[in-house]
Design brief:
Elements: E1 14-18, E2 25-29, E3 43-44, H1 48-53, E4 55-61, H2 69-72, E5 74-79, E6 85-86, E7 91-94, E8 100-102, E9 107-108, E10 113-117, E11 127-129, E12 141-147, E13 153-160
Parallel strand pairs: 10-11
Antiparallel strand pairs: 1-2, 2-3, 4-5, 5-10, 6-9, 7-8, 7-12, 12-13
Length: about 160
């Protein structure tokens, strides 16, 4: 039972709860009720690995307006940590698992971002290229999942389409 696994602190604004998913935690806000009891609010947070590494998928351009989808699509990955992170062998995939990208030899510097483009091109320190000939990210909504070399989910980014 989740409530039995919660860390309780009567002075806390929220409660951290262990979940069945080892890569996620739940924060359950505990506002002080003004009149009567306040309803419980539960929100699933980012995977624990993302918090530990500082990596996030910060943006997906899934429906560019000035060019075709394949030419303008990209995923931005940000390193919010003070450490360089070796992404060699890591993967980025769509939620359905239909499309997958394996990172080449690549290290993301502290505080840096890299854009992974759907189109072809020459990799550099801030741009990587999937070299795909068709669009990857659904305009109706999709989810990107970043996993480390061992297959552990590190970050996830979901969006709703236009």
């Amino acid at each position: 039972m989740l409530a039995d696994m919660a860390v309780r602190d009567p002075n806390a604004f929220s409660q951290i709860v262990a979940t069945a998913n080892p890569n996620a935690v739940i924060a359950r806000p505990q506002p002080k009720p003004l009149l009567g009891s306040a309803p419980a609010v539960t929100k699933e947070l980012v995977p624990v690995a993302s918090v530990l590494t500082g990596l996030t998928i910060s943006y997906i351009e899934f429906d560019p307006t000035e060019t075709s989808d394949v030419e303008g699509e990209y995923v931005r990955i940000s390193n919010g940590s003070a450490n360089a992170i070796d992404l060699t062998g890591w993967t980025l995939r769509d939620h359905a698992g239909k499309h997958g990208y394996t990172f080449p030899t690549f290290t993301l510097s502290p505080g840096a971002e890299v854009q992974l483009w759907t189109k072809g091109g020459s990799d550099d320190a801030t741009n990587l290229y999937w070299n795909n000939r068709s669009a990857i990210w659904n305009n109706s909504g999709d989810t990107a999942v970043l996993s480390d070399v061992d297959g552990n989910e590190v970050a996830r980014y979901a969006y709703e389409g236009k």
